[in-house]
Amino acid sequence: MARSLTRGTANALDRRFKAAGAARRQASHVFPKHHSFFWGEIALYSFVVLVLSGVFLTFFFVPDTEDVVYHGPYVPAQGLYMSRAYASALDLSFEVRAGLFVRQLHHWAALLFVAAMVLHMCRNFFTGAFRRPRELTWLGGVALLLLGIFEGYLGYSMIDDLLSGLGVRIISGLLLSIPLIGTWVHWMVFGGAFDGEIWISRFYIAHVLLIPGLLIALIGMHLALVWYQKHTHFPGPGAREKNVVGERAVPGFGTNTVANGLWVVAVLGLLAGAFQINPVFLWGPYDPAAASTYIQPDWYAGFLIGALRLLPPWEIHLGAYVVPAPFWAGVFLPLVMFALLAAYPFLEQWATRDRRHHQLLQRPRDNPVRTAIGAMALTFWGILFLSGATGVLASTFDVAFELLVWAGRVGLIVVPPIAYMVTKRICVGLQRADRDVLERGVRTGVLQEGPDGVYVEVRRPPGGADRDGRPIPLEYGGARVDHRPATASEPVAEHPTEPVAEEQR
Length: 505
Fold this sequence. Notes:
There is one protein chain. By secondary structure, the chain is mainly alpha-helical. The chain has 16 helices and nine strands. The protein has helices at 2-17, 20-27, 38-58, 84-94, 99-127, 135-157, 162-176, 182-190, 199-229, 249-274, 280-283, 302-310, 325-352, 368-387, 390-397, 401-440; strands at residues 30-31, 67-69, 81-83, 243-248, 316-318, 321-323, 442-449, 455-460, 501-504. A three-stranded antiparallel sheet has the order 1-4-9. It has a two-stranded antiparallel sheet with strand order 2-3. The chain has a two-stranded antiparallel ribbon with strand order 5-6. The protein is globular. The two termini are 41 Å apart.
């Protein structure tokens, strides 16, 4: 009965909207098969978990700064003055059934969402997936990453515990440090001087309505562009600039992506149930006179704290105006970092004068300059990230705090250029190794004695040998070169091990 009802409904829709042909064409959409493409899916499914768990939390969280006296089940906090927002977070953790689990599920999903976006963008960067005609897709990804960081910051800030209070106070100071307009920007956010009475409600509206709406719109645009422009794919058997080699949307990719989504939900559920995160009941309510070395922000905010610690206290006096020191580390530097990230496709296009359309991806070793720039940028970010935890490192390893700060300052100048040079040399060496195999053959581990008594390793020429027994060199096409030792002396041709779908662009 259900089958006939489904068939009848589908036929009725097709008679009215002529959707069968379009659905059949879209079901034949081809997706490349490579593990690195899963990072985008992980980010998408993490966002779905974020939305669903966030809807649950909105039924119980109270975004209010009004002071109350806590009389709930959490004994250490009884009798303390706290905001209604923090009290509702405690009630959500201890009185609502599965409330603590959903809180932790929401927080873990937020961390995974940002991490998967970062890894997805790294894959796109190092393989050149941002090249023409996909510059707009790259810009959308940068905007998603920026909004995701803001969304995560607002989420843990509006609870009004000790951790979030310290973070909000830092942001308040950074807003006030903006030249000329800082006071007005601070007023727009807080409604007055720190901390005001309406800032939690404003953070709440932005967190549950404004930024999620923008994220949904950008994700929809991002997916539409990827679907319309079709996918990039790695060089390999049958892969060309005019086609896409992989598996069709239905059933191959569809079943795989559903399984991937279920795994994301399962892993997040395991993390939420077994690994504690953001225990706000241990931090206590925000107190300007209290602080703790081991209370650290979420990982994606670590680079900002590190920048505030490492950059020198520069102040610029412009007549009656002063540009405070926190502005350079907390506002100017992050803006420059994201601006360079957004502009990189256009900068590379200008530097290389390459304005062709690219559908084939590059292995990182095939563009040593870009890979070295990426390694240098990640090293720069990593030093800032580690410097954000200098307090924890100093206390844990009994090292002077000032020594770690100066080590970070020196490392910020010295280590990124070294990372650039080392990465570039590694890429060039990997290229030489690939071309050596294609020109001279794969190593077999078998030694052969020559007429002069010298032992030479026998190689298996992948392109075969000529009449004189000399290997026929093959041209490197960007695909993976097999370096595994082989015992056969004759060349072995490469063929796909399984049938693949091919879609013309």
